Amino acid sequence: MRLGLQGLGGGDGFQGGTGMAWDEWEQLKAEAAERHTLQVQLNQVSEDPGGSLGGIRSSKASWTHAGESVGKLAGDARKALSALKHEQSGAAISADVLSGSAQKDVYQSWSKYIARVRDRCVALQGLLEKTGNDQFKNDDAIRAAFNGLAKKYEDTDGGGHDRRAR
After folding, report:
1. Which residues pair with 162 in a beta bridge?
2. Which top-rank group of organisms is this from (predicted)?
3. What's the pLDDT tens digit per position in 41-57?
4. Residue 162, C-beta contacts closer than 8 angstroms, at least 6 positions apart
């Protein structure tokens, strides 16, 4: 199978009889690599103390869309809590039955966990929308707001238990 590189250059050619010199092929590869060297890593803080992101720009629409998406997750968590509560009340399990007691513990744990997920989504939605509306003074203020959110929810493990209480 030939790559259809005939006509892209003259020279002595290289294996396969494409009509392109090896040096020309290497030159094209190098030029293509140069065009694709810019890599953006959004999970790292800039080394610039001023918080500059080196020409990276964001749009209000992107932040708003992200906020709306997180808001939908909060809505889904509300629905899950409602369904969980409805199913729990329909079970009418007494606490004196061992399996009923275990089921009640699971319900309470999941109820607390889903409520925290919902609350975190609501808080994150607000931060995303506020960021998109340029309501923060600078990048440091944005970073502090998101770090505050992470700090507030860092003590919730997968079971909804507060690690500090252990």
Report:
1. 156
2. Bacteria
3. 444 445 554 445 555 66
4. 155, 156
Task: Tell me the residue range of the domain where 96 lies.
Answer: 60-159
What value does the CA radius of gyration of the chain take, rounded to a whole number of Å?
Answer: 28
Place of tokens 């998109």: 132
Q: State how far the alpha carbon of 43 is from the alpha carbons of 53, 74, 121, 152, in Å.
A: 12, 24, 20, 20
**Residue bearing tokens 């250059």:** 9
Closest C-alpha among 86, 85, 135 to residue 111: 85
* Contact (Cβ atoms closer than 8 angstroms) between residue 116 and residue 153: yes
From the centroid of its chain, how far is CA 106?
29
Does some domain include residue 50? Answer: no
In a domain, 35, yes or no: no
Residue 26 included in any domain: no
What string of H, E and C letters represents the secondary structure of the chain? CCCCCCCCCCCCCCCCCCCCCHHHHHHHHHHHHHHCCCCCCCCCCCCCCCCCCCCCCCCHHHHHHHHHHHHHHHHHHHHHHHHHHHHHHHHCCCCCCHHHHHHHHHHHHHHHHHHHHHHHHHHHHHHHHHHHCCCCCCHHHHHHHHHHHHHHCCCECCCCCEHHHC
